[in-house]
Amino acid sequence: HVTAIQSDWMAGGKANGAVVLITDVTRDRQVQRMRSEFVANASHELKTPITSIGGFAELLTTGVVNNPDKVRDYLARIQSETARMAALIDDILRLSCLENSAGEPGDRQPVPLRGLIEETIANLQPQLEARHVTVKVDAQDVTVQAVPDEMKTLVQNLLDNAVKYNRDGGSVSVLLQRQAGGLRLEVADTGIGIPYEDQPRIFERFYRVDKGRSRKVGGTGLGLSIVKHVVAKYGGEISLKSAVNKGTTIAVTLPLS
Ligand code: ADP
Questions:
Q1: pLDDT tens per residue, range 1-41
Q2: Is the CB of 159 under 6 A from ligand 1?
Q3: Most buried residue, 52, 178, 237, 257, by CB count within 10 Å?
Q4: Is the pTM above the cut of 0.95?
């Protein structure tokens, strides 16, 4: 974007000087485009459960469905679509909070990561049992100075994915260790893996390798994007190694200051 501001410092009708302002607005435009894309995607994602809730509610209120099993089934669907919407809104708010507070440290407290990992696994027990997935933890006692909720979201999303995209009877390994200047957290699974061409994109908002599968397992498509934001906030790095039908390993390194 070029603005030429001609000086009024004129001599005999000729300009003796001029100011040319060159502003690089590439980034601004990119941010603007990303924002409106996000709003469009979020609205679309929210519309799907709303349409379905509306449809089932209509069927129930018109009184044409009187088979009690059908009524129960429709009510259960309304309930699960409502849960889906709630999860989506939670993730959208979390992401927007992280973006709005970018650059601010937040209310940091000592967060013992091993305890957090164990608690997250305990909460995942129903899903683990349903899929016969086992978890192995090899964790050192590492405490990080962080906003507790943000660390919780990070650990939860990585473990959630390792179970959701696993195979029945598969396994998950969690490694937590101190390393020079920081910590390393690795979550490895024996699941479906991520095709090579999708790997660079899975940290993008709403990017899913298989939309149908992600929806079925309760995904919002925002988990890894939230994880990436949290890692960036703490000056860390995230990397991914994956092979289709073999499994995925996501490694996060965070500095410990
Ligand atoms: P979702 O809510 O859909 O799980 P995420 O942002 O957490 O969204 O992940 C984005 C996509 O990356 C997922 O839909 C899935 O296709 C893929 N993915 C994430 N983690 C794994 C994993 N451990 N194994 C295989 N695919 C994964």
A1: 777 665 555 555 666 677 888 888 888 888 888 888 899 99
A2: no
A3: 52
A4: no
For residue 48 the two structure tokens come to 């799907």
Q: Is the CB of 203 under 6 A from ligand 1?
A: no
Q: Measuring from atom 14 of ligand 1, which residue has the nearest CA?
A: 208
Instruction: Compute the distance from residue 218 Cα to the ligand 1 centre, in Å.
Output: 11
Taking the CA of residue 191 as reference, the ligand 1 atom at the shortest distance is 24
Q: Does ligand 1 have an atom closer than 6 angstroms to the CB of 161? A: yes
Q: Which residue in the block uniquely carries the two structure tokens 């129960």?
A: 72
Check if the beta carbon of residue 98 is closer than 8 Å to that of residue 226: yes
Give the position of tokens 């995942």.
124
Q: What is the ipTM of this complex?
A: 0.98
Distance 195 CA to ligand 1 centre (A): 11
Predicted pLDDT at 63:
85
- Digit-coded pLDDT (tens) for 131-160: 999 999 999 999 999 999 999 999 999 999
Instruction: Give the integer Cα–Cα distance in Å for 225 and 40.
Output: 17
When pLDDT is averaged across residues 92-106 and rounded to a whole number, the result is 90
SS3 per-residue string spanning the chain: CEEEEECCCEECCEECCEEEEECCCHHHHHHHHHHHHHHHHHHHHHHHHHHHHHHHHHHHHCCCCCCHHHHHHHHHHHHHHHHHHHHHHHHHHHHHHHHHCCCCCCCCEEEEHHHHHHHHHHHCHHHHHHHCCEEEEEECCCEEEECHHHHHHHHHHHHHHHHHCCCCCCEEEEEEEEECCEEEEEEEECCCCCCHHHHHHCCCCCCCCCHHHHHHCCCCCCHHHHHHHHHHHCCCEEEEEEECCCEEEEEEEEECC
